[in-house]
Amino acid sequence: MKKKAFYFDMTSCIGCKTCQIACKDKNDLDVGTLFRKVVSFETGVFPNAKIYHYSTSCNHCSNPKCVSGCPTGAMHIDSKDLTVQHDASKCVGCKYCIWNCPYGVPQFSVKTGVVSKCNMCQDLQEVGQNPACVDACIMRCLTIADIDDATQDENLTQNLPILPDSNITNPSVFVKAKPQAFDKNFNKQEY
């Protein structure tokens, strides 16, 4: 099986958060815990103000800092599909993965005492289905693709001012960005 990557078409995203809700529902997450999050950013000033939305989750990096920072092996790269997975039975809740991830992806649950995160809906993909966030996206701007196919498209980027440099972890996420997403002067809007 080839390594999969998230493909996000920012030019089509309307910021509806349906992907975020589908992920939260599918994973039965606690209040305040999100594996996928839609964040809005504003650039420019009136009369040239612009907005864009970014849907983010685990990037299933090729060089994941959460894995290298995990002392128990709970965070690991799956040998079948090369996604970053978490084994709750090995997790001691030390939060080293959270501190090491430059994207702030792993989430600690006070209720369970362990960390959890997006697993790219590995259970659904094993039976030929898409991740819940992908199927829920009403604008069809979120998909998964073979990483080899995504790297061939010169219109996609892994580097935006809102993200850490992709050389740090080599994330498996590719973005078709709006021009304003490259503006280094932005305001993060959380609704």
How would you describe this protein?
The chain has 191 residues and is α+β, with helices and mostly antiparallel strands. It has a single domain, classed as Alpha-Beta Plaits (2-Layer Sandwich). The protein is built from six helices and ten strands, in the order βαββαββαββααβαββ. The strands form four sheets. The chain has a three-stranded mixed sheet. The longest helix is centred in the first third of the chain and has 9 residues, at 18-26. It starts with a strand and ends with a strand.
Please render the helix and strand layout as text:
Layout: E1 4-9, H1 18-26, E2 37-43, E3 50-56, H2 65-68, E4 75-77, E5 84-86, H3 96-100, E6 107-108, E7 115-116, H4 122-125, H5 132-136, E8 142-146, H6 147-151, E9 173-176, E10 186-189
Parallel strand pairs: 1-9
Antiparallel strand pairs: 1-8, 2-3, 2-10, 4-5, 6-7
* Helix content, binned percent: 10-25%
**Cα-to-Cα separation, first versus last residue:** 38 Å
Query: How many helical stretches?
Result: 6
Return the domain count.
Answer: 1
Structural class: alpha+beta
Per CATH, what is the topology? Alpha-Beta Plaits
Instruction: Provide mean pLDDT, rounded.
Output: 94
Task: Classify the oligomer.
Answer: single chain
Radius of gyration: 16 Å
Please describe the biggest sheet, giving its number of strands, its sense, and whether it closes into a barrel.
Answer: 3 strands, mixed
Listing every helix as H and every strand as E from the N terminus to the C terminus, the arrangement reads EHEEHEEHEEHHEHEE
> Per the principal axes of the C-alpha atoms, what is the gross shape?
globular
Secondary structure tally: strands: 10
Query: Strand order across the biggest sheet?
Result: 8-1-9
Q: What is the CATH architecture annotation?
A: 2-Layer Sandwich
Query: Briefly, what CATH class?
Result: Alpha Beta
Which band does the percent of strand residues land in? 15-25%
